[in-house]
Amino acid sequence: MAIQDIYPTALRLLGRPVLVVGAGPVAARRTKGLLDAGARVTVVAPVACPALAELATAGLLNWEPRPYRPTDVDGVWFVQTATGDAAVDAQVSADAEAQRIWCVNASDHEASAAWTPAVAVVDDVKIAVNAGGDPRRAMALRDAVATALDTGDLPLRRHRVAGTGATAGSVALVGGGPGDTGLITVRGRRLLGQADVVVADRLGPRELLAELAPDVRVIEVGKTPGHHPVPQSEINRILVEEAVQGHRVVRLKGGDPYVLGRGGEEAEFCRQHGVEVEVVPGVTSAISVPAAAGIPVTHRGLAKGFSVVTGHEELSEVPARADHTVILLMGVGQLRDSAASLARAGLPQGTPVGIVENGYLPNQRVTIGTLGTIADQAEAAGVANPAVIVIGDVVRVSPFAPSHFKTADYSTTSPNAPRTTKTRVLTP
Q1: Model confidence, pTM
Q2: Which of the following is catalytic: 201, 253, 256, 393?
Q3: C or N: which end of the chain has fewer Cβ atoms within 10 Å?
Q4: Is 201 a catalytic residue?
Q5: Residue 304 is among the residues annotated as catalytic for this protein
Q6: CA-CA distance, 377 to 357, in Å (whole number)?
Q7: Which CATH number fits domain 171-283: 3.40.1010.10, 1.10.10.10, 3.30.470.20, 3.10.290.10?
């Protein structure tokens, strides 16, 4: 049988009688798939393997513990034979053929009237692959396609309403990570590929928006420090309004929705209005962006904990010690006030400070100084948001940190080229 002889289709076997002849491991796998499809399965075999016997004991199928009879094919819609005996399988296949019943012959794929494909299910999509009777090849191709669907590399978006009640929309709050397209989660990427509407921040993996289908609407709601053209109340309203219209909405946010991203407010508003909402965690910039500059937020012997804040007002509540890392998000505009607040709280002026702009992006820049100098350095260098500021001894670990912390100049002369020396600076 050539592959050109195959007419791919899908059988709807819900409630229909199906015959399986044989009860070994192959028959058990095929039977499980038939049961999943809702078929009424009868198994004919003198002995059943444990997996199939358990299904019979549970009342999920009818097992006839005896040899096959030609009359067993009477009245069934589909036959699967997998006895391990080529002669018996051939007889079952011939009896089914005589009654014009489709039969899969596990012993001889060339003589089989039907083939069982390698199958995978991703959401409500079922993938079936035939590969010229080569099951291992079919499974490899199936796995590759399923992985591409899982990761969002292939489109999963619906284009047809499935039936009554299928118009209910939903909202997914997706954390897109710090901006690099490879740092969004697999789940987030998949949901983005299924979206009808994307409500997007100005941060996060913006390049993925260019990969959306032309009819996917992108609603821009990005904010900058001190400038919120679309207020949070309006964002909440947009999410609910689009979902109520039956759309699959993705709220694409930078970092993590629940780390200073107001995701909790959006989720609560959706639930209050009866809209299904899913929260997909993201790689928060508070941890990932320092890592892009080789700065761990904790490090044995240097820091055991860290605090994440958005402005200098909260700094009076965090430990003012160089061994407790302080991370400022979107804090460039308040950097001078923040440094002064920490100094007043007792943090030494020589405490290392690192600023990472545009983490993981091609224009990433790292500036390193001390609590006493960093504001002047940032102003002179034109440091701007988006940026993450790290304050504490962990900055010493960065390969971008200068080896001469005892000098008056604490800035990196080549911000995008890490130092090559192995010198470890123990004191400022």
Answers
A1: 0.66
A2: 201
A3: N
A4: yes
A5: no
A6: 14
A7: 3.40.1010.10
